[in-house]
Queue: 3 jobs
Job 1
Amino acid sequence: MEQNKQEKQMISVGCSPEIKEACPGFRGMALSATISNTPYSEALWQEIERFTADYRSRYTVDTIKDMPSIQATREAYRRCGKDPSRYRPSGEALCRRLLRGLELYKVNTVVDLINLVSIASGYSIGGFDADKIQGDRLLLGIGQAGEPYEGIGRGELNIEGMPVYRDDVGGIGTPTSDHERTKLSLETTHLLAIVNGYDGDETALTHTVEYMRTLLEKYATGMDFNILKF
């Protein structure tokens, strides 16, 4: 796939028949951008801290269970064959971490801002280095027994019965954890982010992607944006 340092062709994203059958209400949105990542952004973390104080004043660990985005993702896991309490989707896990009084992880600027968007929306969001994706298409399917998958910071992850995005080589993203092979680093210049809307709320998905775009422009010199609905 031809590319240059300034701009990269949008990778197409689609759903397999098995996902459409298990989760007929699913809607997804993908955002691609050229970015400049940094180890840490003081201004972003000031925004995260303000958000955290407000979020903790409005929600508890018990009340977030009723958020449509979180509730629908948990139901999608059950429909695909996975226990969402044992393999918690990342959007829910981040919300719970914040509401338990713990600090968010500090990874790098782009990962940190994606985590902020995930908590604000309740959606699990995949963030990938687009240059590490093999081929020009991702397909959302369901994990198979024994399918190899190395989750970021998790080692081998059992993705059987879990929604999974695959490129030409194999799985790169699940709502629980993305794959080490395509993770975001300080060298990443082409981002592909995918918002997983198992609640089917296209208005909320659009708002979420626009919020992420704003943060990328503000904290990661984001440009060359492309947005895909699928």
Job 2
Amino acid sequence: MIVDILLVLGGLALLVFGGDLLVKGAVNLALRLGITPLVVGLTVVAFGTSAPELLVSLSAALNGSSGIALGNVVGSNIANVVVILGFTSLVSVIVTKGHDLRESWAMMMGASVLLIALAATGQIGMFGGIILLLALVAVLWRQLSTGRVDDDEIEGAEPGAKGRKIALWLGGGLVALPLGANLLVSGATQIAQEFGISDTVIGLTLVAIGTSLPELAASVASAVRGRADMALGNVVGSNIFNILAILGITSIVTPLSIPPEMLRLDLWVMLGTSLLMAPFLFKGIVISRPVGAVFLALYGAYVWVLL
């Protein structure tokens, strides 16, 4: 058991470290090649920050653990709303007024409904993966045609970074990420077997929370700097990308069998937590500390039901 816990912790550390290196390297390489900040922000950063989740889901699916692969995405989307926004609002209230994320929220809801529809067939294979990726292309096109990103808002951007430094960042990230994913999936699978619980539950809880740690850290750091509102965009963007990109790519590489219990509960919990954001985004209601405490309590109740 101790070895398995060390594998999980080591895997998480490598995923966080490797993800950060990959984002830095990819962002600065893209900017040096003359790609506009808008494109870098919406594509390179989005793919880079989701690389840990992608590698974990791919590794799990290829090892026959569809429960971990799918649970990682569904559990992350649930945690992104109630855990990340919950913790962030405890540090600093989240002002939603003046941040028009209604269209992006609608895209997130659309992606969630699309996932449930595909999951209802019992398996998401290549055809389903293509549908998800086509939806991702549509979302990116819409954001590229209407959005704006400033240079100082791009995660990992370091003007003047040398080529050798960029190469080291990219190399380090490309080595650390797959190694970390393999360690995490291996340790998590063993823990599930030793406790006699399904790999789906492990994916929905331990793996999902672990791969969401970078987003949680970034959101809390933003709150400390007085920009707690940035957590809103992070959550919505991450949830869209988790479904359309991660599950799209993973299901094309290898079909994902849908655990029956996920269709009965977890996918609907994901949809419900996404709906929780609606009154705050559409009515401009502040996400206060008491609201954050309720969010965290809801997550605690969900995990209790799972276990």
Job 3
Amino acid sequence: MTNPKSTPEQLLAAAKWVDFYYFGKFTSKDTATANAQALIKDGGIVGLPGLSPLSADVYKQYREWIADDTNVDASHFTSYTDSLTKIPLIPEPTTRAQEVYADLASTVQAVLTDPSAPIEPLVKDASSRIERIISQ
């Protein structure tokens, strides 16, 4: 995410930017409401459900902070939001992730472009290949 040749000052600046840009709205009511109001002013969407980079409680608090500025009907997304508690998040591979994604591209493309694609065998084959890549 950062240049390995970065100075300590540059690394600290990058960390502060990530904190501000990605986490600030979840941890500060003032930032959350200011961001929401700026989005509305620019014609943007406020309140679209998503995954929280922090805890469920923090996300719930954030949603409460922006409730007055929300301009989408969350009930349209209940099948998505309900699935968030039922489907486990699987982190990306700790090694060789880009090789895994490159390998999976052909499988995903086949499934998305061929209505008669044999999904189960394609996924089993991809799984075998991925296991080999990760184990190297």
